[in-house]
Amino acid sequence: MRPVIGITCYVEPAKFTVWADMTVALLPYMYVEQVVRAGGQPVVLPPAGDPARLVERLDGLILAGGGDIDPARYGEEPGEKVGYVRKFRDEAEFALLGAALDAGLPYLGICRGLQVLNVALGGTLHQHLPDVVGHEGHSPAPGRFGPLPVVPVPGTRLAKALGTEPVTVPHYHHQAIDRLAAGLTVTATAEDGTIEAVETDSGPFTMAVQWHPEAAEDCAIFETFVAACRQRTG
To answer: Percent of the chain at pLDDT above 90?
Structure first.
């Protein structure tokens, strides 16, 4: 049996086939493909109703990428570059993550999913990373990934998946962790010092990366995550 992996999604206006400008719950299919490739059964979770109550039916949870978190959640006013805030998605995903952590459900945060984890545990974010690092390499152009190397920290779950040498991965983020939340350990950084991955110090499998492993050629992160989900189910 494939472990059942819930993946959060966007709700945005979209065009497809004969339909135009319709509000759609959507997710880049790369997420689905990587979960299936790693041996999991993906289930898309829209931010509607009460998705937190589905945790007991899941074997693992992925919070996918998306727009910016409302800065009020970490005690700040929004800067000029904050965009695509969807408060209904914040509400659903923070509740979903809280329920997953309480239940000991294996968790993989991707891009926004890392940021939700850090903010939920009391951390803060850089609202516009180029203002901090002085370049646009983490998000070079709309709809285009930026290839930048990250360096995994030896002895971490991430290093077991990717090794300890620098690895070039696809980035698309203009925000990143500022103050690290208590209970999280940094597991990878970029050359400019940006925190690119974290995991919990103890307890159930909890890993989050700031880049987009769903767009990578290899499946190592998803394989590591799905293996943890399978182990939990026995």
So the answer is: 97
